[in-house]
Amino acid sequence: MTQPTAPQPASSWQLADIRELTRLFIQALPATIQLTEAVHQAVLSGMGFKGREEGKTAGITGLVYKGVYGAASALGTGIHALLTHLPPAPPLQQIPDTPSRAALLATLNGVMGDKLVESHNALATPMTLRYLGKPLSWQTLPAPLPPRGRVLLMVHGLCMNDLQWQTRHQDAPVNHGEMLAKALGYVPIYVRYNSGLSIVQNGQALARQLEQLATHWPGGLGEISVLAYSMGGLVIRSACHSADLAAHAWPAHLKNLLFLGTPHHGAPLESAGHWLEQLLPATAYSEPFVRLAQLRSVGIKDLRHGKVMDSSPARNPPSSPLADPRAPLPLPGGVRCFAIAATTAAKRSVLADRLIGDGLVPLRSALGLHDEARHQLAFLPARTMIAYRTSHMALLGSPQVARQLLHWLQSDHQEQSPSEEHDPQ
């Protein structure tokens, strides 16, 4: 289902974007100066020179920093005044949605999307369902939506957007969702969301969107299958949990969940970030940099363990970087669940299983395997696949992955046998 290509503007960034980016700069400048002063004072404290207060320099140095703060404030005021005299710009929602602009905004949202929402910055991406490249409006649904439609919902990963399902393999265009839609008659519906928000927040928002989809679909919705990549798999699991708590109707339409490189039990790179937070305060000189380590968005922090729901404090102390603080959440019942994991290695090994994996997600995490039985996800062996010599991003263009997805969904019409049991790997 190829979408027509509109003429591309000369620049991906528009005046409205620049205004919001300038707001970010003005907000970030004092924090940058504050960090610099804190490091400066840490050095002076080591030499016996005390500051006015924690992280604040005294004497002539303190006066210099006061001047820098004042200059930064004046600069921010001047820039703001300049922008107010520029001609009015169209709302961000009306700006052409080019792939490059969408990718830049997706990265910005993944890294600091929670901060964008807190500061009411218009660059924060709202949760939307999209069809034929446009957000679905429940007031004016597009005419092509077929009655009793079979939906294939596509949920992207961290720092990504719906347009990035389109990739290339050996110079040929690849989109797993469009291929499945064409081969099996699905209606491809894409999710776009702010991946810097917590997975729970995004799960709740997606659950509400899917309830609207089920309510307003012309002639009633037939079924929903979900293809979720990376963090997107955690978001749809969280959405299922949220829908269960809210007694939503849409899960009754849910038939298949296909997870592609999803860190069900966390990703080591985020765990490394948490370790950094734990280790940095060991010296006075490094303490100011803890603030930098903590600037990761809450969405990224949720990847440490693969947090999909809010729960009571764990029995393990939170100060232990190795503790898994989550309450267990099994796969949704009555739904056929599939998992594809990747490894850059040619065969399985302890290192590939537990650390390297596809470069971002360990094999065991993507397969739902866990050292504690209560956290183990019950994927049937016949519903899992390992793609060898494949990186995390390469999953999106892999012909082997495409064939496996097609094979699984072609057998979609057979009901899951109640006698099937999980065989742990």
- The helix-strand sequence is HHHEEEEEHEHEHEHHHEHHEH
Task: Determine the mean pLDDT.
Answer: 78
Tally of distinct domains? 2
General form: globular
| Alpha plus pi helix count | 12
| Low-confidence residue ranges | 1-11, 39-51, 57-65, 278-286, 314-319, 414-425
Instruction: Quote the beta fraction.
Output: 5-15%
Structural class: alpha/beta
CATH topology call of the largest domain:
Rossmann fold
Using the coordinates above, name the CATH class of the largest domain: Alpha Beta
Report the C-alpha radius of gyration, rounded: 24 Å
Helix content: 25-40%
Strand segment tally: 10
Please identify which CATH superfamily of the largest domain we are dealing with: Alpha/Beta hydrolase fold, catalytic domain
Strand order of the largest sheet: 2-1-6-3-7-8-9-10
The largest β sheet comes out as: 8 strands, mixed
Distance between the termini: 38 Å
CATH architecture of the largest domain: 3-Layer(aba) Sandwich
Secondary-structure blueprint of this entry?
Blueprint: H1 15-46, H2 59-84, H3 99-118, E1 128-131, E2 134-135, E3 150-155, E4 167-169, E5 172-174, H4 176-184, E6 187-192, H5 199-216, E7 223-229, H6 231-246, E8 254-260, H7 268-279, H8 290-293, H9 298-302, E9 336-342, H10 350-356, H11 363-366, E10 384-387, H12 399-410
Helix pairs in contact: 1-2, 4-12, 5-6
